[in-house]
Amino acid sequence: MNIDKELDARGLSCPLPILRTKKTLSDMSSGELLKVIATDSGAPKDMQAFSNQTGHELIETSEMNGEYTFVFKKK
User: Fold this and answer.
1) Which residue from 8, 20, 13, 71 is spatially nearest to 43, judged by alpha carbons?
2) Strands 5-9, 33-38: parallel, antiparallel or unpaired by DSSP?
3) Which end of the chain is more exposed for a tag (fewer CB within 10 A), N or C?
4) pTM higher than 0.90, yes or no?
5) Domains in the chain, CATH or no CATH each
């Protein structure tokens, strides 16, 4: 998978991971991939809701050692 941009949202609490994800995606081109790393325990639910509301495809979600990784494909 070829990631176009990476966003480090570790240590940020809701709603900052979502707001930074939204801002970063707005500066990207359609079809590009954004990798987001977050530590907020609510991030998995929030990121899925964000994907459902905006149409940006959440193509991968994983968790390791309290860090959540998400990969979005910009619509």
Assistant:
1) 13
2) parallel
3) N
4) yes
5) 5-73 (3.30.110.40)
